[in-house]
Amino acid sequence: MNHRIWLAALALAATFAHAQDNSAQEANVGPAAAAAERFLAAVDKGDVTGSYNEMAGASRLMVTLQQWDGAMKTVRAPLGRLESRRMVTAVPTRNLPGAPEGDYVVIQYNTRFSKLPDDQMAIETVTPMLDRDGNWHVSGYYVKQVPHRELKD
Questions:
Q1: How many helices (H) and strands (E) does the chain have?
Q2: In Å, what is the CA distance from 58 to each residue of 32, 62, 140?
Q3: Most buried pick, 42, 69, 104, 125, via CB within 10 A?
Q4: What is the strand order of the sheet 136-147 is part of?
């Protein structure tokens, strides 16, 4: 086989494999978003145990239920009740800083809470991962208050 043809075939195979990998990662968005929604529903109700049970096994090993309860009282409760939430991005990835390689989807929401000033909203970042049990569970949750002008569309 001619070297150019062989290299072209190799490049085509690599491109096809990359496309399949991207397609598989994109397929993760739906199940990951469903896990994020279950988690957020529990958080919104103030169901600390329910939200904790939706967390990934590795996250539960790093944070006790009591620590999670304290975090929810410190971070989430002061924001008040949920008024609106809109998913703005869902990005599948295999690598996150400080985390082992795996299947993750980083999901961001523009969220309005009742106790935020009128000129502010929140960006909630929820990161589900495909856990060892073969199901999607949340490995990270972060809330940042921002002025309206800093929100993604």
A1: 5, 4
A2: 16, 7, 10
A3: 104
A4: 82-93, 104-113, 120-130, 136-147
Q: What are phi and psi of 55, to 5 degrees?
A: -80, 155
Among 73, 87, 72, 83, CA closest to 120: 83
Residue with tokens 């990934």: 56
Q: Say whether 81 sits in a helix, a strand or coil.
A: coil
The answer to whether the pTM exceeds 0.85 is no
* Topology of domain 3-150, CATH: Nuclear Transport Factor 2; Chain: A, (3.10.450)
Q: How many CA atoms lie within 13 A of 23 on its CB side?
A: 6
Per-residue pLDDT reduced to its tens digit, 58-96: 999 999 999 999 999 999 999 999 999 999 999 999 999
Give the whole-angstrom CA distance, residue 6 versus residue 71: 57
- Residues 6 or more apart from 88 whose CB is under 8 A from it? 108, 109, 110, 151, 152, 153
